[in-house]
Amino acid sequence: MALMITDECINCDVCEPECPNGAISPGDEIYVIEPSLCTECVGHFDAPQCVEVCPVDCIPKDPDNEESHDVLMAKFERITAGAS
């Protein structure tokens, strides 16, 4: 399941550089997560790094983008294919 950023986001800028897939970017009012790039850090880390650094706990799982660990791993492999 991809993650999402809720409107409790304070735009503190700490989550964006922590995302190994580049899935987090500034939105119109708050940061947003691109579901097609979010692997919840599967393949990179044991826990989602954005969740680990968020000071206001505003990054839950996105119920509209449910994915199993296997699907997240396949997405990680697709995203990192060809990377050196």
TrEMBL record:
The keyword Iron-sulfur applies. Gene3D superfamilies: 3.30.70.20. One of its GO terms (cellular component) is cytoplasm. It comes from the Bacteria. Residues 1-29, 31-64 form the 4Fe-4S ferredoxin-type domain. GO terms for molecular function: 4 iron, 4 sulfur cluster binding; metal ion binding. The keyword Metal-binding applies. SUPFAM superfamilies: 4Fe-4S ferredoxins (SSF54862). It holds the Pfam family Fer4_7. Signal peptide: none annotated. Keywords: 4Fe-4S, Electron transport, Iron, Iron-sulfur, Metal-binding, Repeat, Transport. InterPro entries: 4Fe4S_Fe-S-bd (IPR017896), 4Fe4S_Fe_S_CS (IPR017900), PSI_iron-sulfur_center (IPR050157), YfhL-like (IPR047927). PANTHER family: PHOTOSYSTEM I IRON-SULFUR CENTER, PHOTOSYSTEM I IRON-SULFUR CENTER-RELATED. This is Ferredoxin. It comes from Ectothiorhodospira haloalkaliphila. The lineage of its organism: Bacteria, Pseudomonadati, Pseudomonadota, Gammaproteobacteria, Chromatiales.
